[in-house]
Amino acid sequence: xxKIIVDAMGGDNSPFVNVDGSLLALKEHDDLHITxxxxxxxxxELLQDKKYDASRLEIINADDVITCNDKPTEAIRAKKESSLxxxxxxxxxxxxxxxxxxxxxxxxxxxxxxxxxxxIKGVSRPALVPVVPTFNKTGVVALCDSGANAECYSxxxxxxATMGSFYLDCAFGVKNARVGLLNIGTEExxxxxxxxxxxxxxxxNKHINFAGNAxxxxxxxxxxxxxxxxxxxxxxxxxxxxGACIGMMKLVKGALFKNIFTKIGALLVKGGLKEVKNKMDxxxxxxxxxxxxxxxVVKGHGSSKxxxxxxCINQAYNMEKAGLREAITKGLQEETADDNLx
Length: 342
What we know:
By secondary structure, the protein is α/β, with parallel strands linked by helices. It has helices spanning 16-28, 40-47, 72-78, 83-93, 106-117, 154-172, 193-204, 231-256, 260-268, 270-280, 306-321, 324-341, and strands spanning 2-7, 32-38, 57-61, 99-102, 127-129, 131-133, 140-144, 178-182, 209-214, 226-228, 288-291, 296-299. The protein is built from 12 helices and 12 strands. The strands form 2 sheets. It has a 7-stranded mixed beta sheet, sandwiched between helices.
């Protein structure tokens, strides 16, 4: 049985989407057990008229909530009765649990996971890895790091590539992932010293399929399965891409509803537009995995719907089922051994 904890609070639509997403995930996996952590009375009332396997769903009471307005470090120290803190403590102290899903404060999740769960041996810095759609029909691309580490050394980005490659294999079945280094040009000698040093390390990394430098415009092109970078650059690229996609959809909508003739045209392409909208909706692509900590942690978008919570749970389930943490540990040990022999 794969046991996953779901922090039932902290998101814009919590706890409603957390409950519904958990029930959707339970329907998909017969060997999945979920523990909801949040206000027991409210959660019990929400489950009252639902149909589910009660033997695979548990509630642990937590009356407090860490919000996005709380300072992460202070909140983890002070809010010991919060749903996130209790979730992390349960994950840390009970070996039967494999992972945690939360759509709460990103900062608090990062601080809590690193301080309460600790890092995998050999990991210098844990990294956040979201997955977004590409312009290919069914493709996705992962970004590592997307904001956990504003400043990085070259060897840390090299580790991101190793961890991200194992993640794509275990959670999404992407074999031999094509890894790109975010840079200002595709040539090997492009970029600052950090990018040049990282490029050489990635070239020598036997655990990855390094495909060279990746410009920001190639992020969603389908040329790469994984793009690695420092968290500052990754976060800027992710949000710039999100903003550009939202703005483009608004422009298209405005053009199609400009007059009666364009509205008639809009009716003809309605199906195609809906397909594009669904492909670009983050709710259909789950959350960001926090790679490098001692337990599986998946951070969903704060405004997630139930379907997104379900996909986040599926990510955590797949990571545990495939033994991702063990694969990362083994891969980093082999990397260290190779470096010692060099």
